[in-house]
Amino acid sequence: MEEQFILRVPPSVAERIERLLNEDASSSDDKELDLSFSEDGRTGTFVIGNDRFTASLMDLPTVVESYKTYDDTNIIKLLTLMIMVREPGDPAPDVVEYRHGLTPPMRDARKRRFRREPDLNPELVQRVEKDLLNIMAGGTAENADIL
Questions:
Q1: For residue 118, what are the contacts with CB-CB under 8 A and spacing of at least 6?
Q2: Most exposed: 11, 61, 139, 147, by fewest CB within 10 Å?
């Protein structure tokens, strides 16, 4: 399986990357561009020029489908993750899933868009399951009066 990454950087870093990619590399001050991750695979360092930024590999709250082709005939579906580069001093995220999606309508997506798990009493679920198994076996439910 191949993976595709979305690189989310602060605006100042984005300008520097765009300048590096569009201009002649020999005339740019930012000649080095590097991304490396530590042993855990979730935290790392992003280097552009002489500046170092902390980076985190984050899961997105929803499935993001993207496709790639090598021969304009066969399409490969890719898994998309996000690499978030932070300014020095910004706190590290305490979770591995990014709370918001890629676009403004997906802000706080898990909380607003998806159904909550119902609050069920485990004892009630077990009792109903037992009653259903009894009924399917030809018996009756417990504590049920048949008139």
A1: none
A2: 147
pTM for the model stands at: 0.63
> What's the CA gap between 145 and 142, in Å, rounded?
9
Nearest Cα neighbor of 12 from 30, 39, 25 is 30
Q: How far apart are CA 13 and CA 34, in angstroms?
A: 13
Tokens 């679920």 appear where? 125
Give me the pLDDT at residue 67, please: 80
Residue type for position 82: M
Residues in a beta bridge with 129:
none
Distance, in Å, from the CA atom of 127 to the CA atom of 105, rounded to the nearest integer, reads 42
Look at residue 46 and tell me whether its pLDDT is greater than 90: yes
What whole-number distance in Å separates Cα of residue 87 and Cα of residue 48? 12
